[in-house]
């Protein structure tokens, strides 16, 4: 089982190891721009598919009755869209094996 997470600085360092001709500034700017485009696409309701890696979309959660964990009181929760990631076949295969 994999534990922990990769911080931004570690992520950028891994990319720099493989691409010595790029500066940290260029790499950070590129990644931020990619993420910005992905977020804007999701806001517009578009699905994002990166072949072999996976797809990003929004799933709608219906309004429901929830429970306040502190008080135990029932509360009405509004319907909302949540980001959803579905891993692609290649990613699933690599991670599982």
Automatic annotation (TrEMBL):
SMART domains tied to this protein: BHL
Cellular-component GO terms for this entry: cytosol
Stored Pfam families: Bac_DNA_binding
Keyword list, A-Z: DNA-binding
One of the record's GO molecular function terms: DNA binding
Family (UniProt): Belongs to the bacterial histone-like protein family.
Record protein name field: Integration host factor subunit beta
Upper classification of the organism: Bacteria, Pseudomonadati, Pseudomonadota, Gammaproteobacteria, Enterobacterales
Record gene name: himD
């Amino acid at each position: 089982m994999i534990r922990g997470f990769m911080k931004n600085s570690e992520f950028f360092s891994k990319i720099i190891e493989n691409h010595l001709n790029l500066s940290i500034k260029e790499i950070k700017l590129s990644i931020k721009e990619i993420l910005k485009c992905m977020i804007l696409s999701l806001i517009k309701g578009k699905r994002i598919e990166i072949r072999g890696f996976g797809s990003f979309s929004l799933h709608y959660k219906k309004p429901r009755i929830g429970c306040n964990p502190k008080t135990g009181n029932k509360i009405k929760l509004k319907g909302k869209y949540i980001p959803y990631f579905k891993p692609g076949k290649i990613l699933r295969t690599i991670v599982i094996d």
